[in-house]
C-alpha cells in the first residue's frame, strides 16, 4: 500500500508546481459546495471537508473567504460536477473529476488530452469499478499503534493504519472521514499532512520508460485544465 501514499504526495506536489492554479481550483470548489448548502462549515459537512483539504494545501484565507462570500452573495454562476473515465498508454486507467460551467468545452478538452497523449475516453463505469473511494488522513508525530488506540477508544472503524514514509496514514470508508478526523483532533492532533477523499486503484500497473513518459504527460495536461479538479490513476510512477 506504500504506493498509495506516493499518489497523495503527487497530488500535494501540485501546489509547488503552480500554486495559483491550485488555489483557483479550490476557490471554485469552495464556492460550489457553499452555494449548494449553507455557507457555514459548521452547518455544511461538504464545505467543512473542502476547507480541511484546503488547509493541507495552505490555501490562503482570502481565497477561502472570497469564495464563501461569493456564494453568500447569490451569484448566478453555476457549475456541473462531471466525472470522465478513460485509458492511457498500455491500458492504464484514469479518472478525471471536473467542475465546469461549460460541459461541451470541458468534454472536448478532456477528450483531446486523452487523444493527443496515447489514451482514449471510455464510457461511464469503464474504469471506476477498478477503484475504491477512500478517505485518507495522514499525520506526523504519532506511531501507527498510537493512532490505532485513539481510534479504537473513539469506536471509529477504519480499513487500515500504516506507517508510510515519515507519516502515519489512515485509510477509511469515505463516510468515516469526519469521525476519524474528529477523534484525532480530540486527542490533540491538529495538523494533517493529507486529508483527502480519493479514488485508490485496486491494483497497479507498471509501464515501460517510453509509455510512462507519455502517461505522465497525459496526467500533466489533464491536471492543467482549468475545469479539472482531481485526476486519479492506477500507474505505479515509482519514486
TrEMBL record:
Residues 79-235 form the TACO1/YebC-like second and third domain. GO terms for biological process: regulation of DNA-templated transcription. GO terms for cellular component: cytosol. InterPro entries: Integrase-like_N, TACO1_YebC-like_2nd/3rd_dom, TACO1_YebC_N, Transcrip_reg_TACO1-like, Transcrip_reg_TACO1-like_dom3, Transcrip_reg_TACO1_YeeN, YebC-like. SUPFAM superfamilies: YebC-like (SSF75625). Keywords: Cytoplasm, DNA-binding, Transcription, Transcription regulation. Transmembrane segments: none annotated. Gene3D superfamilies: 1.10.10.200, 3.30.70.980. One of its GO terms (molecular function) is DNA binding. It is found in: Cytoplasm. The keyword Cytoplasm applies. It comes from the Bacteria. Residues 3-74 form the TACO1/YebC-like N-terminal domain. Pfam families: TACO1_YebC_N (PF20772), Transcrip_reg (PF01709). NCBIfam families: PRK00110.1, PRK12378.1, YebC/PmpR family DNA-binding transcriptional regulator. Belongs to the TACO1 family. YeeN subfamily. PANTHER family: TRANSLATIONAL ACTIVATOR OF CYTOCHROME C OXIDASE 1. This is Probable transcriptional regulatory protein OEV98_05270. The lineage of its organism: Bacteria, Bacillati, Bacillota, Bacilli, Bacillales.
